[in-house]
Amino acid sequence: MNSKILFFFIFHIFIFLSKPSFAVKVLILSLNALPHYEDFLEEVEPHHRVLMLPAKKLTQEEEEPRRLKYRDIFKVENYLESAEVEQKSKELYDIHPFDYIIATDEFDILRAARLREFLGLPGQQYDSAIAFRDKIVMKSLLEKKGIIVPRFKKIKSGVDLLEFAKINSFPFVVKPRRGAGSLGTTLIRSEIDLQNLLLRKGIFNDYHQAKLEAEQFIEGDMYHINGIVVGGKVVACWPSLYITNPISILERDNLSSYLIPSQDPLVRVLNGYAESVLQALPTPLNTVFHLETFVTQTNEIIFCEIASRVGGCGVNPSWKESFGVDLMREFVRLQGGLSVSEAALNFSYEPSCISGEVLFPKKKGTVIKVPSECPFSWVKEFKVYSKVGDVLVSPDEVGDRIADIPLLVASSKEEFEERMNIANSWFYENTTIED
To answer: Whole-model pTM above 0.90?
Structure first.
C-alpha cells in the first residue's frame, strides 16, 4: 500500500478514535422548548439526539427547522401530569439505547435521575437529586454535617403547622418542599396570616398529604452562589448579592441581584462555604449548582436552599458577560458526557464587570401602558411578558413578572445600584396598571 495512503488511513482512524463523543447518544427531557440543545452538543450526531418536551411548548414553525437536528422529537400531551415521559423513554431505550439523559429544568431533575437508575445510565442518581430538590431532605443532611440551617419542620397537616407556630415566633416562611422560584411560598407575619393559610382551600385535608416545609425567617443579607463541579471538584464558583430578598417579589417589590466584586472578602468566604455544602451532600460528580444562603449582621452564614441546575433569569447572562462562561452550555455538556470549556476549567476569579438582574413583578390590574424597549446602553437585555390589555393578578412566584432586565452591567457595585435605581424609576414611570 502506498505510504501516503497508509498514513492518511491511519490518521483518520486516529481522529475517529480520539473523538468517541461522536458515538454518544442522548435523550433530552425539556420542560421548556429552549435552550437550543443542539447548539451545545456539536459533537453528537443529529441522529443520536432525541428531544422530549410538552406538546404545547413547540409550535409548528419552531419544530420544522429543528427536526433536521434530531432523530426524533416527541411531544408529550401531559408532560407533568402523567408518566408518559417515562413510558416513552423506556420504549425508546428498548429500540435505540441512549447513553445519557439530559435534563436542565428543576421539575425534570427527579424524573431524569429515576430514569437513569432504572435504565442503568450514568449521571445524577435519585438519592442525589432528592437531596437537591427536597428542602427537608437537604436541610436534614446538612444539619447532621454541622452546616447551620434555619429552624424547620415537615408540614403534612394543619396540626403540624400549628405546632411549628407554637415554637417559632412570627414571622416565618411556609413553602413547598419541592417547589422552585418561590412558587407557593408564603410569609407568615401574624396570627391572621396563619389563619388565612390554614383556611386556604387545597392545601390541607384529612389525608395529611400536604408536602410543605415551615422554616424560621432569617434576618440578614441573602446571597446566591453559582458554580460548576467537574470530576467531583468545584472548578468555578462566584457569589451574588440579592439587593432585595426573593420573597420581596411576592410583596410586589422589584427583585435585583449582582455579582459581588472580587475585592469583597465575602467572595472567598462564600466560595469556601459552597464547597463545604457540596461536600456535605451527595453531589453529582459533574454538575452545576445554584445555592442560596443568608449572612446575618454577626456574619453568621445560614443555609437557605440549593439546586443542581443553572440559576434562573439573570444568572447565566451575568456569567457569560462577566466570566465568558455559559453555565447552561456547560450543564448540558456535563450531563451528556462531554468536555466543558477552557473558560470553565481555567476559571477567571475576576469578573470583567459587575453584572446582574432586575425583575419587575406583576401587579394586580389591567395593563394600560408598558415599555417595549429600554433606552439605556448599560441594559444589555430587556424582556417584557405582558402587553396592553392584559389583566394581571398579584405574583405567586419569582416567575410572575411583567418584565425583567436579565443583564445590567456596571463597573462597580455602587454604579450597579445607581443604575438599578434609574432603571427601576424609568420602568414604573413608563408603566401603568389600573386596578
So the answer is: yes
